[in-house]
Structure formats: structure tokens, C-alpha cells
Amino acid sequence: MIRRFACLALTAAMLMVGAPRPAKAAPIEIQFWHSMGSQLGVYLNDIVDKFNASQSDYKIVAIYKGPYDQSMAAGIAAYRAGDAPAILQVFEVGTATMMAAKQAIIPVWKVFKDAGVPFNESAFIPTIAGYYSQGNPPRLISMPFNSSTAVLYYNKDAFQKAGLDPNKPPKTWGEVATDAAKLKASGMPCGFTTGWQGWIQIEEFSAWHGLPIATENNGFDGLNTKLVFNNPTVVKHIALLQKMAKDGTFTYVGRKDEPTPKFYSGDCGILMESSGSLGDIVKYSKFKFGEGMMPYDPTVKGAPQNAIIGGASLWVLNGKSPEVYKGVAKFFNFLKSPDIAGLWSAETGYLPITKFAYANLQLKGFYNATHPETPIQQMLLHPPLPWTRGLRLGNMPQIRTVVDEELENVWSQKKTAKQALDDAVSRGDDLLRSFQAANGG
Amino acid sequence: MKRSNFGSPWLPYVLVAPQVIVTILFFLWPAGQALVQSVQAQDAFGFSTHFVGLSNFSELFHDPRYLASFRTTIVFSAWVTISGLVISLVLAATANRVGKARVFYQTLLIWPYAVPPAIAAVLWAFLFNPSLGVITYALGRFGIIWNHAINPGQAMFLVVVASVWQQISYNFVFFSAGLQGIPRSLSEAAAIDGAGPLRRFFDVVLPLLSPTTFFLLVVNVVYAFFYTFPVIDAATGGGPVQATTTLVYKIFFEGFQSFDLGKSGAQSVVLMVIVIGLTVIQFRYIERRVQYG
Question: What's chain B's average pLDDT?
Fold first, then answer.
């Protein structure tokens, strides 16, 4: 018994001290926690291996920590326990939470500066960099990595069958409604559907129409922000979708990616989804399909404006030695190089994060029918307005859920569009206030 | 009471120590943490923590959606417990009657318990998937539109089915064992007195099974309250609207999706009180009607 205890104590002591490190030449290990599952994980590991092979001073250890919400929770828990990774991938709705944790993070521009690695922030696509920048002038706080945007997919074969022009995706919401009705009349079980309703039908819709989602420039300028998406334009839009849901031309099947299979199985003729869904659609659809820009309401002046992003960025957590951060800077520099950023974009369908990567892909003649240029064109359509750079709202995961719940009340005809959006705004504002209070704003 | 003799006065303590350590580490300590957190407000990273008294609780009880989740939890737990017990009792009683094939049926019926709850939920969610589900497709043939993304009744049905399916196996094992423990002579005597099979079941077998039934009642209620979280998370995510958001799911959402540990802690405390209360009621009042052999 005593011997076993002694043995245990010894093991514990060894764990605490840390394994003895060889005197020299061993690369510095840098932990990188991410949420890139299945095929995306394969592509990511491939890039990490390339970096590790390209030099011998640092070794990036990429670890899959579950989907976005779980990896973020794991990262925060690890930080509280003093055992955080140097790099943590966080989804876009977690941005405000991370930015508010000033004591836990190192801004990415500072990581580059301290490491002495030149960092040209203007090389990034403005609508991507803007989402993760802060201050005056804005500096990048986290490293853009995998960004997507919402697009419209349509079934060309079904369009033909319904007597519609297969080369003309609906450009306006009026056209979406009439096209969906014709698709339905031609015998399709579902005309139009959408994934990520809060992100696509409210956040993207607002930016696309040059409208703010919240005051203080969508929260970019401070924590004292209030939601404003219950304005007449959005209400009119949600009311149109409500009417379509009632007519049966819009079918709601879920909050996340559930509608994608409904499209590639041939049930729905028109789908609005993340540009990152392209891979699945290419893989599973047995019909010709096309991609169009997000539809807009032509009565709104200045529409379409620009799209905003979804996806995730890489955050640097503090508490490690300067050498580790030097390695982080070198790794980030590698990630944003035109070749690697271009490769990542080409493989995954995520947006190219820098102008150089985009130009590189264009030069190589990458864009074609199976690799549409639509997503990046939407991002670059117009320079972003101060309130169409993205959004930075605390408690955003909860606000998304509130919006999901209220919109479900609309699709099931329990509330009017106006009533549901008013309720979503007032419930969301409560969440913003509690975030403000918890973060001393 | 039987008195046991141990060689050393310390031995009994050493023997119960592992259980006590596990209880302290995994039950008492987290419960204490929840109590502390429930009166605090804290940011996600834990940089600023301040005492807020009972404001987390008062906010909770002013939130109509939190109050609604009580109703959801009661409805859900009642469905899970009652249907779980009834179905497994019927299965156990019928499996007990078949001769040689009994082991075969028992094995099949116990099998689902080996499936992790999250996987079971994904399985059911696949079958009923509004876009691709096999059952959705079959129901569509009969003109029934299955879409639990928008229909609260269907969503509740789905999470109940997924939860009960697993729990039936567990209940079945105990009912089977209980049934085998009932002497055949009692049933036979009743049969000689002219009681039919149903009468024998309700007047002889069921009262003798009451300790098992009572035990399972407690276990099933606790299961429905606490352990059905993965099922709800994987099958419906608490929706549509909040139709399947139970108390325990709300705790998860508040704590691990929103990093609001104060509110999550307050909800945990409320849930703790409820379950303590329920258990006391069950042992004080329902147990009196139980006949231990």
C-alpha cells in the first residue's frame, strides 16, 4: 500500500515539474485548439504539417476540441485553470466575449510587433479584417482564418422544369417569392428554405441593405449598445417570409445546417446557406445547381451594400514565454501567405482572407462553376459602412437563440413579424445589459 | 442489525473511503461551487467576480421562460417515467412468460442500454430528421408532415421516445429480476382460487413488485430530470422556441453556451432543491405503500 502511494506521489510530482526537456534542438511546442472536424480537420492538419516541416524552431500541435461552442468553453475553462493553449479558434459570435477579456488575450498585431515580424494589416480583405479589429485606428485583435458568408443556391434543373430561366437566380426578394411559388406549382415539395436564420435573414440581410443591427455601430464602439433590427425594412422582410411559410413556399426545417440536405436531396429549389456548404452540395446533389448573390429588396436605397462574415478566427491567449509568441507570429505569417491562404480557401470553400490570396486564385483560374466567385464578390461589393463591418455583441450565442425562438414563433404563425422582432430586440437588450454589467461597461 | 467485526478499528473507514472521496470530489464540491456561484456575477474568464446576493434568483423567477421550463420539465418527466415504467413492465411480464426464447428476448431488450445517450438521440433524430428522415418519409406517404423543427408536440414526442427507449432496458432488467423473485406458488394458488391471468397480475404480482416499482420510480424521475440532457441537446437543442427546454438543459445553455455561471449556478441550486424535495416526498409518502417482501 505504502509503496503504491509513494509511486503515485512520485508520478504526480513528475507531472507537476514537467517532463525533463532535452538540452537543445527540440522545437518549442505551441498548442493550437480548434474546431475543424472531419474533412476540414484533414486540410488544417495538412497545413500545420507544412509549417512544422518548413522550420525546426517551433512545432504547432493542433488539437480538435469539438464544435465551436465546446472548444471555446474548453479554452476558457483551461485558461481559468492556468492551462490554456497559446492559440484558440473562436467562432464569430464569441468575438465580443474574447475582446472583453483584455487580460486574457494578446492582440494579434502586438504578437507580430513583439516578435519583430512585419504585419501588413491592409493586405486583409477589409470586411474580414474589420470584424476582428478594434481601436482607432482599428488594429487586428484576432487572426482571421476561416470566414464564410451567406449565398443563394438554386436548383437549375428544377428551375427549367418550372419554366424559369436556369441561368437567372432570383435577384430580389420579390423574385424569390414568385420563383418559389412557381417551383412549388411545378410539383416541388418545397420552394425556398434557409439555414442559420438569425445570421442570414437578419444579420446578413441588414448589412446587405446597409442597415445597422445594433447601435454603437453594431457594438464596435462600445458595450452600451441596443438592438435595432426591428426596423420597418427587416419587419417587412420577415413578414414576407411569414407569408411564404403560410403559403407553403418557404419550408423551415431547422436552426443550423438542416436545410442543406433538403436542397441537395432535390426537395427545395432555392436555399440560402453558408458559402462553406458548397462542398456538401457539390458532393451530394444529383442535379445542376447554381450560386447567386443574396437577394435584396430593391425599394431600399443603396442595397445591396456588402455581406458580412461568419466562421471563426484565431485568438492568442497570454501567459506563455516570449519564444512561444514568436512562434505564433511565424505560424500566423505562414497562414496568411498567399499560397497557404489560397490553398485553404480553395480546399474548403472559405473566403480567401487576403487580397493577395484572392488575386492568386484568380490568376490560377480557380474560379468556375463548381468554385463560384460569388461569396468573395459579395464581400467586396462596396466598402463597408461603419455599421456593416460585422457585429460585436456580448452574449451573442444567447441572442442568436432568442432570435431563433422568436422567428420560430413567426414561421408557426403564432406571432406577427413585428411582434416577434420587437420581443427579440427587448429580450436581446436584456442580454446585452447583463453582458455590459458583467464586463464593467 | 448485524454487527460485523473488523480486525482494525480503521479498516471500515478505509473501506468506505473511496466512496466518500468520490462523493466529495464529484458531488459535494461541485454542489458547493454551484451554491457560491449562484450569489455571484462573473465574466466568462473569471477576472471580475462580485457578490450580487439573491439577484440571480430573483431574475430567474421573474423570467416567464424559466417558469415555463418548469412546466416543460414536469410534462417531459411524467411522460418519460410513466411510459417508461408501463412499457418495460409489460415487456418484462410478457418476456417472463415465454419459455426457451426468454434469454433471447431479454438480450435484445437490454441491448439499447449499451448505446450512449447522445448516440441514441442522434439515431432517433436521424430517423425523424425533417429533411432526410426515414420515418419522416414514411409518414409523408400517409399524409403526415413530420417537422419537429417547427411543431412543439412532435419535438416533445421525439425527445420522450429517445429518452424512454434507453430507459426501458434499464427498467426491464429490474422488472425481470423482480418477476423472477416472485414464487410461482403464489400465482398458482391464486389460479386455483379461480383468478384469471390479469387478476393474478394485478392482485398478486404487482403488489409483490412494488419495491422494484418504487425504486424504478425514483430512478426514472431522477433520470428524466438530470440525465436526459444529451438526448435533448442532440435531438432538438431545446426547440422549437423552448418547447423542449427542460431545467437541466437551461442550466447547460446558460453555463456552457453563454458562460453566465451565476445564473447557471442559481438554476442548479433550484434544481437541487427540487430533486431533494421530490426524493423526500417519494420516501416519506409513496414508500409507505410499498410492501417489502
Answer: 88
Q: What pTM was estimated for this model as a whole?
A: 0.86
A261 touches chain B (CB under 8 A): yes
Distances (CA, A) of A206 to A280, A306, A378, A391, A392: 27, 10, 14, 11, 14
Chain B residues touching A409 at Cβ < 8 A: 241
Kindly indicate the confidence band of residue A297, based on its pLDDT and cuts at 50, 70 and 90. Answer: very high
Inter-chain CB proximity A261 and B258 less than 8 Å? no
How many domains, chain B? 1
All residues of chain B having their beta carbon less than 8 Å from the beta carbon of residue A76 are 44-45, 259
B259 is a domain residue: yes
B83 touches A at CB < 8 Å: no
Indicate if the pLDDT at residue A285 is higher than 60.
yes
CA distance A197 to A256: 8
Taking contacts as CB-CB distances below 8 angstroms, the residues of chain B near A407 are none
- The residue ranges of every structural domain in chain A are 24-148+309-363, 150-306+394-438
pLDDT at A251: 96
CB contact under 8 A, A97 and B242: no
List the alpha helices (DSSP H) in B54-147: 55-61, 64-97, 102-110, 117-127, 134-141
| Residue B2 pLDDT | 55
Q: How far is B157 from chain A (nearest CA, A)?
A: 17
ipTM computed for the complex: 0.82
Asked if residue A177 lies in contact with residue A191, where contact means CB atoms within 8 angstroms, the answer is no
Q: What per-residue confidence (pLDDT) applies to B292?
A: 64
pLDDT digits (tens, 9 = 90+) for B184-209: 888 889 889 888 888 888 888 888 89
> Residue A310 forms beta bridges with which residues?
A148
Alpha-carbon distance of B94 to B281, in angstroms, equals 32
Q: Is a pLDDT exceeding 60 seen at residue B86?
A: yes
One fold for A24-148+309-363 and A150-306+394-438: yes
Query: Does A261 contact B132 at a Cβ distance shorter than 8 Å?
Result: yes
CATH 3.40.190.10 correct for A24-148+309-363: yes
